[in-house]
Design a protein that fits this description.
This protein is mainly alpha-helical. It contains 7 helices and 3 strands, in the order αββααααααβ. A hairpin with a 6-residue loop joins strand 1 and strand 2. Bound molecules: heme C (HEC) (4 copies).
Length: 134
Amino acid sequence: MTRKLLLTTASAFALALLCFVMIVQAEDVPKVIILKGSPLGAVKFDHAKHIAGKIECATCHHASKPEKPMKAEHEACTDCHTKVAQAPMKTKLQAAFHDPMAKKGLCIDCHVKKAAEGVKTPAKCTDCHNKANG
Ligand code: HEC
Ligand code: HEC
Ligand code: HEC
Ligand code: HEC
């Protein structure tokens, strides 16, 4: 009896989880985004490759901040983080993604960690910035 109850609870939980996953996937997430802006070349960012690795949206899309509230939950970084930071913004475009030598930062820390685990991730400037990307 207890076992049956447990099984029912487990399947209800699994169903709820599945619904949650489906809702998340139903959101309109652009697959590939070309981030133009650097003279080194544009960066091709593939959402699908990143989300498939079960990376939470909030890893990159931080919550709205009082200094400059978001207009949408996953607003484009480039709406606020511009080449030269405009007050009240302090974090300029490059710093939103990485430090000047691309040794640290949002897009680098995880790649370094994954590379240490044996996953092939971009490391050099030109692994991300490529004139062929536009
Ligand atoms: C590894 C980092 C990362 C993760 C994880 C991530 N995103 Fe993004 N997302 C980006 C970047 C970078 C852009 C491009 C921003 C720009 O164009 O300025 C973007 C753009 C978007 C846009 C388009 C915004 C616009 O107005 O142009 C949407 C919508 C979006 N993401 C939704 C999501 C959702 C939903 C998830 C989770 C399922 C997610 N993202 C996970 C980095 C990420
Ligand atoms: C609606 C405006 C807005 C959008 C869109 C936005 N940010 Fe921010 N971001 C801010 C504000 C405000 C701060 C805090 C002040 C500052 O550092 O300039 C901030 C700070 C940061 C910081 C510094 C560390 C921290 O959390 O304080 C990073 C890194 C960052 N954002 C990355 C991103 C990335 C990547 C995206 C897109 C996936 C994004 N931001 C989208 C407004 C925004
Ligand atoms: C939480 C971890 C994590 C974060 C944060 C992250 N990445 Fe990645 N990235 C990965 C992993 C893992 C791969 C390898 C996935 C694959 O090749 O299937 C990867 C691969 C890539 C690739 C090469 C694959 C391709 O699309 O051709 C690019 C380019 C890339 N990331 C750009 C970015 C950018 C730009 C950011 C910041 C907005 C970012 N990544 C943030 C984990 C991360
Ligand atoms: C993991 C991918 C990745 C790597 C590696 C990387 N970048 Fe970036 N970088 C980005 C993204 C994404 C942006 C924001 C969109 C853009 O400007 O293309 C950016 C922005 C910039 C900017 C700001 C654009 C501007 O003109 O103000 C500069 C400068 C820059 N990167 C230089 C470099 C240099 C130099 C290296 C190597 C030391 C490097 N990047 C390595 C992803 C990367």
